[in-house]
Amino acid sequence: MQQWVDSLIASGAFGHNPPRDLIYVLFIFVFSAVVFLGVAFPFAGIVSWVERRVWARIQSRVGPNRVGPNGFLQWLADGVKNVCKEDLVPAEADARLFKLAPYLVVIAFVMPWTVMPFSSDLILADLNVGILYMTAVTALTVVGVLMAGWSSNDKWSLIGGVRSAAQIVSYEIPAGLSIFPAVLLTGTLSMQGLIRAQGWAPNHWFAFANPFTFLAANILYISSLAEGNRTPFDLPEADSELVAGFATEYSGMRYLFFFMAEWGNLFIIGAILTTLYLGGWQFPHVSDDRIVMNVLQLVTFNVKVLFLVFVSMWIRATLPRVRIDQLMSVCWKYLIPISFVNMIGTAIWVAIWPDGNPIAGDVMLALFSVLLVLFVRRIIYYFRRSKMEMYLSPVV
Amino acid sequence: MGAVGSYFNHIKDAVTSIFEGMAVTASHFIRKPYTVQYPDRMPVRVQDTLPFRYRGILEVDLEICTGCLACERACPIDCIVIVAEKDKVTKQMMLSQFDIDIAKCMYCGLCSEPCPTGSIHHTTEFEGADFSLESLIRRFIKDPVAAYKPKKGPETDPKIIPILNRGMKYVDEWAQPGGTKPAAEEESA
Q: Do A60 and B24 touch (CB under 8 A)?
């Protein structure tokens, strides 16, 4: 976006000697507001409806289908209901921190949207350290969660908050380490730079560049799920465990803010993964028209991210919760050593083949396709065994 | 096996079991849900699937009601109110009120059993919930009508024949006293 603002200033839209920094700030504010209010928050609401429908279909039921066409307005109804609820602040709770905590978690969810690369021109701020900014800012969730747990003046909220903070902080490590292989392959931390270094075809994506990056992509996905408090790592907010963990004392809209951040984080998880490992918005150059290319790239990016969001929902409906000690053991004993191996392996790979090795990409893609075919055959086996017919329509 | 072997075995077990689970859930995702979406998205109306003898909400076929008041006497809760008087001029039985309070009715069937023509019978309707208690008193007579006089031979009026046939079929469905029907049912049950 910076080039566009520069071109506007150069064309004299703001007069002769405009204060550049103030204009930058103005544009950032306006367009950030547009992206946050128009994309981030509605996405968080709509994905709650999508999750309930997908979850229901996986469990052979229907999901919300009364409020609006196919239940599409259910999230608005939930929002209105929660706004109308009584705003309880416990008497002995630290009121200022109690009220501030949900907003910190929402800020942590909303800030990465400024560096989200929707297409080659549609990015609010192409920072040189884009991916580092994203990782750093999502860590703000820890502060919000700890604040929520402590200020509730409730033993179980405190336990839930501390557990959640421990979980997020622990899984930051494999997530950060798994970003390294992609960065090593390009040498830049900027989001657009990482995408531009990949090609549009799957064998040019970083996920299939070498076996170490493939493992790193998977570990990044698992760690991001754990950071976002998603099942199977949703112990802090599990209903059957600590009531609602750190959010026990919250009611109404404050409670919903925590969940809005969780649903919105799904998009961010998908976005980080597609940017680093799945080729981002890359699309074959079918036209010289900039707008057409941008639209196609936007569609590509969204398709990839939304597919990963669907996979997150699929995993949530499939897997049981892990205990806190199993969670920690998975992180420290399995994910971190493997991430270190990935990092060193990719470093050696880059040292041997500095310009990349296209054959490795083809081989990895072929292996992955074989695994995918086996997986699909397993799905067909279970489907045939059920002796029911296929029903793909989302409308029931 | 050793520690290293078991380490990699754990990873293999975790990965294979997760993908096995995801295959099962994916196979459910592409099927039709089991949910029966009553009442507005049913393939067949539930009322049409219920058996003929189902004791749903009561209904009266006034064309074949003889005004014998057997049902009013049989009801254990007195939810049937009938006003039937012999008209002094035409010497005919005139029915001027036939009210059934379905809120009180306990659907026991004691009224439909003694009916000679089967005019009072249970239907397969069961959706009677309404917003006012008043609407639960079903009033079957607007203007006074003459009661039905059963003929000595078979019925001749073509309008009444189907109603009478249905009524008599309903009455015949009830167990015959001392007959073979209950025994046959016991054998088949």
A: no
